[in-house]
Amino acid sequence: VRPCSPPRFRRGSASHRACLIARYNFIYAKERLEAESTLRRYICGLETVQRIIYIAVVESFRAAKMAFWKVKINVKDTLALCHRGRPSSLEVAVLDYIACHKDLYDVCCSVHEVICCMNRNPKLPCPGTVDFVVISNLIRELCCLAFSMQTLIPPLDIAFGVDGECFNRNMYYRSFDSDFTAPFVAYHVWPALIEDGTVIVKGEVVTRK
Prior knowledge:
Elements lengths: L12 H27 L6 H34 L7 H14 L6 H13 L16 H14 L6 E3 L13 E3 L10 E6 L2 E3 L2 E4 L1 E5 L2
Parallel strand pairs: 2-6
Antiparallel strand pairs: 1-4, 3-6, 4-5
Helix pairs in contact: 1-2, 1-5, 2-3, 2-4, 2-5, 4-5
């Protein structure tokens, strides 16, 4: 960690938050579809492709949050040596420091971790069918985004869905090929973005009877 000089970043946190939410929407609208197109070269079924991408999102957020926790401990121990304020102000200083020094995050390590985890996932095709490194660009973008979201107060996160759960119109949109009369979620296409328990951006699911 660099010498103690926490930047005054919190003033722009509202605009930073808006940019991160916009980035999440852009990944959903563009880069997700590009990843789908790439996977369709190796896998015929759209459902399998969409399940792969959903798990990639979940695993990317998990890996990034774990990496953030480790970086935060390191930064907090260092800044505490020269911090002369309340514990709450130290917490803010740590988050601002990490937000302004994104190179503290080894995103390549997280990408490798996500791909290895997906290769071991029994719900996904075996590694011989497709190498998930083909969507490493999407995973990298998701990891970087998820890491940055942890610097907000409160942090932004994704809602973890379970196949078979009741459809919640406040949290999800139905995919175009859904059975619109079905009350249960068959599988998830994209997770909802939440902030302190409140849905900020709806996710997408497929509902079927």
